């Protein structure tokens, strides 16, 4: 390698900037001053004799040579990851850090107890759960794996069904005391519903109210946890994950025989990670745990609110 050839540290900075498209965001990820990152990329471009980024007020976007370098830098990064795992891996224990991206309903009501059990069995493992109401970009390494409510159609990804789950209309018991228990969906339509902000629904699978013929909600949030807590306060009916109901005793599902929505969570990983044994083992434990926990909570709901024959 000549002095003009890029070293791994240069490529690591290049990768961070290519994924973040922002000096400040890349600096936060790398814990480096943005001015330092800018100088290092200018030096890398001078050494290679090409422009890697188009700089604009919108950020740093890759040029065609930058896109070509990105493919090789990604491959080098994956080789380093594989080498680290080969050295650090243990047949008995999972170690290191794993980041999972998930929608907030799953992140709040399923993952904590599942991940806690995995970590009890693997005390040297560190897990980060990132709860965001959007789709994660694994190509930009925002997470090691992600959970989504629909199967992605593009990208170099490994996708597997994680678990099916049900959603029901739920209202607070105080709401029922005030308005009475509804006997049909028509009984609910005049009332104020709680739901997603329509223009912030990032996946059509989340457009529950439109599916059951309800107009846009008068109380809305991009967070399912906020919606749940609104409903708990008696604000109005909401579509609630059945697996969240055991955590909200103030709520009860209604019209379960008339309205019951089924969805599926998918576990998504980058295709390059299929050779990383540690991530394979964690994905298997996560899948087993989420399925078991979803079934346990569904059983609780079925016992508490049995369907009439």
Give your account of this protein's structure.
The protein has three domains: about 10-90, Arc Repressor Mutant, subunit A (Orthogonal Bundle), CATH 1.10.10.10; about 95-165 and about 265-300, 3-Layer(aba) Sandwich (D-Maltodextrin-Binding Protein, domain 2); about 165-260, Periplasmic binding protein-like II (D-Maltodextrin-Binding Protein, domain 2). It is about 40% helix and about 20% strand. It has helices at about 10-20, 25-30, 35-50, 65-90, 105-110, 110-120, 175-180, 185-190, 210, 225-230, 275-305, and strands spanning about 55, 60, 95-100, 125-130, 145-150, 155-170, 195, 220, 240, 250-255, 260-270. The strands form three sheets. Strands 3, 4, 5, 6, 9, 10 and 11 form a seven-stranded mixed sheet that branches. A two-stranded antiparallel sheet has the order 1-2. Helix 9 (about 210) links the parallel strand 7 and strand 8 (about 220). Helix 1 (about 10-20) packs across helix 4, helix 2 packs across helix 3 (about 35-50) and helix 6 packs across helix 11 (about 275-305). The longest helix is centred in the C-terminal third of the chain and has 28 residues, at about 275-305. The radius of gyration is 23 Å and the shape is elongated. The termini are far apart. The model has no long low-confidence stretch (mean pLDDT about 90). InterPro entries: LysR-type_TF_proteobact-type (IPR058163), LysR_HTH_N (IPR000847), LysR_subst-bd (IPR005119), WH-like_DNA-bd_sf (IPR036388), WH_DNA-bd_sf (IPR036390). Belongs to the LysR transcriptional regulatory family.
